[in-house]
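Consider the following assembly input.
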Amino acid sequence: MITKRIQMLLTILALIVFPLSVGAISSTSYQLDPSENTISIRHSLTSTTYQIDGSLEPLTGKVTSTNYAIESGGNFKTYCGDGYVDPDEDCDRGNYGINMNGKTCVSEGYASGTLTCTSACGFDTSACVVASGGGGGGGGGGSVVSSSAPASPTVDASFTVTGFYTYQNTLFIYGTIDSNTKSVEIDNSTNGVTIKSGSWQATVSLDEGNNSFQIVAKNSSGKASNTTTLSLYRRIMADINDDKTVNDYDLSKLIKLWLTNETEGDFNVDGVVDDYDFSILVSHWS
Amino acid sequence: MMRFKRSNNCRLSWLIILLLMIGIFGSQITQVYAQGKAVFSFVDNEITVSIGELIKVDLIVEPNDEALDTVRAELRFSTDILEAQTFELGDIFSRATPGNQIDNTTGFISEGGFTLEGPVTSSGHFGSITFKTKKEGEGVIEFLSTSKLIASGEEKINGSNLDRLNIIVQSLDAQEQTEEDELMVTSQTHPNEEEWSNVRDVVFEWSVEGDSSITRFYTALDQNPQTNPNQVLSANTTQKIQENIEDGIWFFHLKAQKTNGTFTNTVHYKVQIDSTSPNPIQPSTDATQLNEGEQTILRFGTTDDLSGISRYELSINDGPFVPHASPLTLSNLVTGDYYLKVKAIDRAGNEIYGLTTMRVYPEGSLPETVNDKKTDSGLNERIQSISLLIIRILGIAAVFGIIGVLFVKKKNK
């Protein structure tokens, strides 16, 4: 009788201990963010499979786990859906929203519309609207060399509005070109400049203060258009009043923008001016 | 006729001098912000205290029709008789600004606060500085013209009205000194009066030296460093437990009454409690995607509204936390994902975490960005400042030249 009871007790104990000893975690909503306060409020991540495969969200990457394996070195691989727009991708559908890499229908040469991201991390331009008056197209073949110089490349109006500035050290810029254009040079170089269906685009590095770029379109015979000059102004990060120092006056202006979506105070570009932008202001305090 | 002409010449010369002076020094005026009506003030004009005493100096903000959101009090004090210990924000600007400091070597204090609760339009208590008196003498605490009272980014301080407070420190008389030595207060939970703690339950213990016969003790706990205690405890009591004390700087006051009816001196024991985490922190890197071989800068910072930030620690890819200061250059990065976790720790040991990530690709993977090689803003600024210097030197030379010519003309006449 006593032996039977001991056996039963051992069986119950084994049933309790076994799952723990093999490390099984059976939860459909495993919380990967166990303790750290602000993170758990804003950025906790739940998984039904407890499988973290790959990478973290850029800018907002908020995955915490004591046993999370970071991919690096020889085993490192990128994949579609990891939040980063890798070199072989146009965009990426991460866990925290779609990363369009700053691109829109307009940057892709369309007149308007909504550019979306496919599950294969490519652009879906089906909702983009083609500029009216276009068309015609076709005609073709042969190797006719255009003798006339192409029209000057245009720059999207969003970059040329009065008072334009950015806090970022790189900026994705774009504009349109005519059908006669075969290449676009920025500061006498085609490096980093791509051409897509009537538009050009490039990512430029910006110094603090004024930056000037000379943009020229060339046809297939190398004939150049008139030069388009683009001036871009980069502010010191968090220097809202642009007096070259981040101090109490910028803080006062940030308070005025608190909980709005004003880009002037939204330093981390998450759509709201809040404590995280305040933290960025603090880290740039002069 | 001649006299008229000479007078005209003279007037013209002075006009030129005036214009040149404006030209030379006018560029400096552009940095001066508009002034307003708001002022900082002290509650008193003069305080008399004894050596070794703690004094709490309250700073008042008077908006005078301005709507203030951010303020900074900058003060100078006499270091020979005063030692600044702590600053505590008052109730109208509840959050601390970055860049606050207390310097007992130079006698300089810079403490700022701001509010997210809407602008402050009526007078109120900005904060308190606790000083300890060091020796007998007279000193001063005064607001500096660099203090700031800001509304929506605009300066609103009335710079012509800067208040000052005279401090007179007197020596203790012999009897008081003897009596003060009789009572001793300690705390095992908060043994160092100068350190911050995040423990809110405090045990105060005391002892009486010598064979003085005590009939009762009087205690009090508040935020005033000089309270005369009035809560009675029996003569055999040797400790008092205070639970759930709110964040702030508190003083436990104790005195004893002897059988002959006289009192010992009052002991004021300070405890500094901060159980609140620092404000949120958002680290950021200059680039979130880069090629192997490139480097980037990681920046981080936050504030703590009570005890202040003690240090920052960084963990890369779940490695151990190591103390670091911002900005931090990250170089020699191999291909992979980087998980950068920054911990801010305040002086009471409370923590907060912030995270950012970045990805490093094999060399040459990322498309090039177009570099702006034409504009060197630093060079432009240097050229501008050199040009300005040359213009000023020429201007000053011209002014002295004209003055010289006028002087010679007058002498010849």
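Helices of chain A lie at 2-21, 37-43, 248-256, 275-283. Ask yourself how this observation constrains the way the partners meet.
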